[in-house]
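re: the backbone from monday

yeah here it is again, tokenized this time
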């Protein structure tokens, strides 16, 4: 029997790409592919790409340059390499990728990767590059083999894809297409499989996850809050999260779920992007600064322990110093446990790219530094405030030191503690004894039963 072909997948971008890479890897494993430890050993290299900012998209081309060298070396050794570009750059640029990087054999968009096995079968051996970036009628999820776990105790599960919001800076509505929600029964079946394989925490994913409106088992449309309650009833699922949310879609039932559903973690990623109402309107965010603040108050009123993270853009076209100060103001008022902040990056085909008054890069850099100083202070303060608390920690993996495990707090902080490896996959009470900017250290705070030898 010939040795199995090997694949190597490199993932860029958001958690939805991480999920997609896992699904591609599982599907190809069922077709006899094994995972390669290094790109040089791979018969199939897949770059699962991100188009959100220029830097992310350009990274793909520098990687393709390196892959070209690997492919040539392998060719000299008589081995073929099929180079695949998947994900959002594939969708946005399509055949243009092959023109710029002729090393590419297959281009496959985020809605077509269930066809990847077949595309790979047709590719290579000097054939023309294959480009599949359609939004096919058939349900991608329905055509993928049933979900497998990779042994992790925390997993991602995509429940919603695409976006109909069309923020003027953003490529997602073009790369991922229109909003689509998976039916409750499909999501539930996938969650049950994950639970049966040892998964204890599931993060529900969607570009606009709280706009979820999937078909329920009763034939009606279910909201994200109802879906969360349904999944919380699955044996073995101890924790649920969801990301990313749009402030406009924080419905009353979802806010209530943070109060009433104990398995829903008290941590919410709620991007606000900018603090000036004029900029928010130009971004087409459809909310004002005061609406955002009022929403945060309402959510916190129901769930006092809730912490927030966010996404922020600095230097949107036309942003004045005063308007940027309004962004700092929101950060000061809310107090974030964590945040992602970016310099505005003009994206081809998006309305904002054509607006007059693009902000010079040095101004964006300077604003980003000021913003990140404040965000770093808030993150450090949040972590420090955890010292002395006893928190439930889900132990996920072994640490670098002997006898050490690393787990996650309800607030997604990494927590190191001395603990027996038999506690992997369990949630234990841990007293937080130390805090750094990016992680916490703790000590087991409960008498834990010894596991029989
Ligand atoms: N659906 C999510 C965001 C997905 S993109 C939401 O609506 O919040 C992740 C983040 O990338 C965005 O929240 C935004 O802060 C940032 N982003 C998107 N387009 C960008 C651009 N053109 N330049 C800089 N940052 C951008
Ligand atoms: Fe992009 Fe806006 Fe949609 Fe988020 S809501 S994915 S930022 S268009
Ligand atoms: Fe990037 Fe596509 Fe996600 S553009 S952020 S990989 S949806």
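seq for it, each position gets an aa:
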């Amino acid at each position: 029997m010939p040795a199995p072909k090997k694949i190597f997948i490199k993932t860029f971008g958001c958690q939805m790409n991480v999920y997609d890479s896992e699904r591609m890897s599982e599907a190809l494993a069922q077709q006899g592919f094994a995972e390669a430890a290094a790109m040089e050993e791979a018969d199939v290299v897949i770059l699962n790409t991100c188009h959100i900012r220029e830097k992310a998209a350009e990274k793909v081309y520098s990687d393709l340059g390196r892959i070209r060298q690997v492919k040539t070396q392998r060719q000299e050794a008589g081995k073929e390499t099929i180079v695949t570009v998947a994900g959002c750059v594939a969708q946005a640029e399509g055949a243009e990728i092959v023109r710029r990087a002729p090393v590419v054999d297959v281009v496959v968009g985020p809605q077509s990767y269930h066809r990847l096995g077949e595309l790979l079968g047709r590719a290579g051996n000097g054939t023309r590059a294959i480009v599949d970036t359609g939004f096919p009628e058939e349900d991608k999820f329905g055509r993928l083999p049933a979900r497998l776990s990779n042994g992790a105790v925390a997993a991602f599960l995509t429940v919603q894809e695409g976006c109909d919001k069309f923020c003027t800076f953003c490529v997602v509505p073009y790369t991922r297409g229109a909003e689509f929600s998976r039916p409750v029964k499909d999501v539930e079946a996938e969650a049950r499989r994950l639970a049966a394989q040892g998964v204890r925490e599931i993060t529900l994913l969607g570009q606009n996850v709280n706009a979820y409106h999937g078909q329920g088992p009763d034939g009606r449309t279910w909201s994200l809050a109802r879906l969360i309650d349904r999944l919380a009833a699955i044996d073995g699922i101890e924790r649920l999260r969801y990301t990313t949310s749009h402030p406009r879609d924080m419905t009353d039932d979802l806010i209530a779920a943070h109060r009433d559903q104990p398995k829903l973690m008290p941590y919410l990623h709620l991007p606000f992007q900018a603090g000036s109402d004029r900029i928010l309107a130009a971004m087409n965010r459809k909310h004002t600064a005061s609406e955002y603040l009022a929403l945060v108050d309402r959510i916190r009123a129901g769930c006092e322990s809730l912490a927030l993270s966010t996404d922020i853009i600095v230097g949107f076209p036309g942003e004045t110093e005063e308007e940027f100060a309004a962004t700092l103001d929101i950060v000061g008022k809310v107090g974030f446990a964590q945040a992602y902040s970016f310099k505005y990056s003009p994206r081809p085909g998006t309305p904002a790219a054509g607006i007059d008054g693009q902000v010079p890069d040095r101004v964006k850099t300077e604003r980003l530094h000021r913003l990140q100083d404040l965000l770093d202070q808030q993150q450090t303060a949040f972590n420090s405030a955890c010292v002395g608390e006893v928190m439930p920690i889900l132990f996920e993996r072994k640490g670098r030191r002997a006898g050490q495990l690393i787990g996650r707090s309800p607030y997604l902080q990494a927590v190191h503690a001395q603990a027996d490896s038999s506690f992997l996959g369990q949630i234990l009470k841990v007293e937080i004894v130390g805090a750094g900017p990016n992680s916490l250290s703790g000590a087991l705070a409960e008498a834990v039963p010894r596991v029989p030898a």
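The chain has 14 helices and 21 strands. The chain has a mean pLDDT of 95.
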